[in-house]
Amino acid sequence: MNQALKPRPHAVVVGGGIGGLAAAIGLHASGWRVTVLERAASLEPVGSGIGLAPNAQRALDVLGLGDRVRALAAWEGDGGMRAQNGRWLVRTSAAAAEGTYGGSLVMLHRATLVDLLVSELPEKSLRTGAHACLKDPGTADRRAVVTTDDGDIEADLVVGADGINSAVRAALFPAHPGPVYAGFTAWRFVIPAPDQPFEPHETWGRGGVWGTHPLKDGRVYAYATARLPEGGRAPDSEKAELRRRFADWHDPIPGLIDAVRAEDILRNDVRHLTTPLPAYHRGRVALLGDAAHAMAPSLGQGGNQAIEDAVVLAHHVAPVADPMTSAADLAAGLAAYSAVRVPRTTGIVRRAARAARLTHLTSGPLIGVRDALVATATRLGPDFVMRSFSSIADWRPPQPPYAAGTTTGAAERQQAGDRRR
To answer: For residues 25 and 45, what is the distance between their CA atoms, to the nearest angstrom?
Structure first.
């Protein structure tokens, strides 16, 4: 039989979030036929803003979306970290980030990112309103099976991208304790930018954090966290709760709280996977994103790591033409995926948990010591604090990192050609 006429192996992605969509794009480009099963009736992202660091931007280059994301960057000047009274602890800039990491942070609405990802999906690959569960993870000589309301689907590969409460993870690792409460809750909202300009900042106060960042479309993304018992809700409204906790913090925070409608504020308890999984695969199933390594938002890496997962997985499980060796190659590829991703993401989960403890101190003396240490570290050099993030932000994909046709990719290919000569 002509190899070109052979059907592509079938990958089923359970979950249509950022990681699942990225995985579907990467797998399709690697040679898979993909089906994305999303239980929601439509792709209306739950959330507000997301920051994409240079590591995620490089992963998006592999998917052909890196330059389109970079074009949405709104941060061009100064910014940094502040104390509750407004004093700057760390001053930095987009140019400094570019010099340290090879790129700066791009803040955008999650809906914008989802729309970009959907635009790259193969036609008719996305099925919304599709409730799916893993029936059989499969083996080297048996395909995996996913059950849906419309019947069972056999798959050569299943990707569990179904979030922090992943049913796929529970089916693969039933003895794993799952996510635990990180000790704080989070609020998020997006509103039109205030008339008075401000510099992007994250503020560390007593028992909580506030962040304010501009978006390219003229809006502002704001988030806040605070140490609170799990499962709580404001007795009146979340807007009133934000006022109680943050109204005496520096500008523009009080004005932003005044400007947002109560119904536009999202509140979620933060949970993370502090007990790492032994692997991110079993049988013919791979886990990625929050399903594999849910982390506190303290480093802003949750969605970034999901996108990394997607391109690394697609790289390692690219199908081969010979059916006699394809099963063994898939098993080896999934093992390689776990071997690469478990150590990196486990380390970032732990770093995010440590950062969360540091930013949610409630003791006045300890807060004073923390702020003094951060300010002192900054005086050691303008990028001293930033360099501590470099081991995360300087990540590069395990394959030619830039998609054909992108401006960044053209420069990278020219450099590669120069080196060969």
So the answer is: 18
pLDDT in tens, 59-116: 999 999 999 999 998 877 788 999 999 999 988 877 877 777 778 889 999 999 999 9
Condensed to tens digits (0 to 9), the pLDDT of residues 383-421 reads 555 566 778 998 999 865 444 334 443 343 334 333 333
Core vs surface per residue 371-408: b (16+ CB within 10 A) or e = beebbeebeeeebebbeebeebbebebeeebbbeebeb
Quote the pLDDT of residue 407.
41
pLDDT score of 109: 93
Residue 22's identity, in one-letter code, is A
111: region left, alpha or beta (phi > 0 left; psi from -120 to 50 alpha):
alpha
Q: Give the SS3 label for residue 149.
A: coil
- How far apart are the C-alpha atoms of 401 and 383, rounded to whole Å? 26
What is the C-alpha to C-alpha distance for residues 238 and 236, in angstroms, rounded to an integer?
A: 7
Backbone Cα Rg of the chain: 22
**How high is the pLDDT of residue 20?**
98
CA dihedral 410, 416, 419, 421 (to 10 degrees): -80
- 86 contacts 251 by C-beta, under 8 angstroms: yes
Residue 62 confidence (pLDDT): 95
The rounded distance, in Å, linking the Cα atoms of 246 and 186 is 13
pLDDT exceeds cutoff 50 at 157? yes
Where helices occur in 102-155 by DSSP H, the ranges are 110-119
Which residue's structure tokens are 């982390």? 295
Rounded to whole angstroms, the Cα distance separating 129 from 132 reads: 10
23/393 Cα distance (integer angstroms): 20
Instruction: Supply the pLDDT for residue 380.
Output: 66
User: Measuring CA to CA, which residue among 180, 159, 168 is closest to residue 341?
Assistant: 159
pTM: 0.91
Start-to-end CA span in the chain (Å): 41
To which residue do tokens 């330059």 refer? 67
- Average pLDDT, rounded, for the chain: 89
**Is the model's pLDDT at 360 over the cut of 90?**
yes
| C-alpha to C-alpha distance for 64 and 386, rounded to whole angstroms | 28
In the numeric block, the tokens 């049913």 are attached to 167
Sign of CA dihedral 322, 323, 328, 330: positive
> What is the C-alpha separation between 239 and 285, in angstroms, rounded?
42
Are 383 and 99 a contacting pair, CB within 8 Å? Answer: yes
Helix (H) or strand (E) holding 29: helix 18-30
How many C-beta atoms lie closer than 10 Å to residue 271's C-beta? 19
